Amino acid sequence: xxxxxxxxxxxxxQALNLAPKNPLPLTARSLTAEEVAAIDRRIYPIVFGLYGVxxxxxxxxxxxxxxxxxxxxxxxAAIVALVLLVPLGxxxxxxxxxxxxxxxxxxxxxxxxxGVTIRSAGRTARLDYRDVVVGxxxxxxxxxxxxxxxxxxxxxxxxxxxxxxxxxQSGTITAAxxxxxxxxxxxxxxxxxx
Length: 194
Hints:
Helix content: 40-55%
Largest sheet: 5 strands, antiparallel
Structural class: alpha+beta
Radius of gyration: 22 Å
Distance between the termini: 24 Å
Shape: elongated
Number of helices: 4
Order of helices and strands: HEHHEEEEEEEH
Strand content: 15-25%
């Protein structure tokens, strides 16, 4: 069993455990621009806070971990800590730049007992679970080859969809419901039913 197969098995297990906690029908709606900005405002302090903890650790080690009288290490460590801030700042700017032009597509995905309804830009498509195409699981890699189920990538009638919480409110639980329904019907969870 390769890494992707193990990761998919873990994701399936997590989705099947999550689905019964949230009864059908479930609706995921696309995030508004304000909600996307709120996610960004929560993520950046965490990233810069982690950097701060690491930088303080480096500086404390340079200050206290060197022999007395060796004053050259601390200024070098301070410069290294500041230089490491540059790529982090560029990353944050790039991410913010990518999402600052976000426009809510006004899409929603409803999972019910008998199928999935996808609404987008005045269009509506009703699909049986047999017709829902789950391209892949959306995962977050963790420690010791563990993964976290975030959602699914759907090949929808109006184009591809990433059904997860970074794009849809209640995206992860709706994705788990779709996975559980396909599994309960004996359909392949990832891929098209034959």
